[in-house]
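Now for our specimen.

. . .
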Amino acid sequence: MEDLKPIFATNLATLRKKKGWTQLELAERLNYSDKAVSKWERGESLPDVVILKQLADLFEVTVDYILEKDHETAVPLSKRKRRNRAMITGISAVTVWLIASIVFFSLGFVESAPSWSWLVFLAAVPVCCIVLLVFSALWWGKRWLFSAVSVLIWSILTCAFFIVYFATHLNIWLIFVIGVPAQIIVFLWAGMRRS
């Protein structure tokens, strides 16, 4: 039987690099040390079966895929898992808009409701961004995460501007200046690499 260590080492390094993770980032996701991940990728040792299953789940492949040299026989997990994750994310985001619609509809029956109750929909944007932020952190990776953070920043500032404007008629457009350093922080955060 062929030695699994070099095959596993090659497959692990390839899958990790495809995700854009460092050894430390992978180790943190597994609650292991980066030294253990380094040993695995050098072919010095193999993880136990539980960690092997966690790795397969993280990389959205089968355990066979990680252990096989020939990937024509070992097929990655079907697109069903990715599709289901996209559906869960979409359902959660649309639920935010459903709740906003119900609140807007309910305000139509209140006599003292302000004429600017349509701002409920504007307030739904940052709430939706928070939902997307959570799922991005869980499933979709860095690009989606940083995009969700950026949209969250600007949508919160936009909400604050319109709510203050319609409630007090103060024009506080300078509030958007806050978004510039916040966006720069997001760009710098996105460019950081863990050692």
The mean pLDDT is 83. The chain has nine helices and no strands. The domain at 4-67 is CATH 1.10.260.40 (434 Repressor (Amino-terminal Domain)). The longest helix spans residues 79-107.
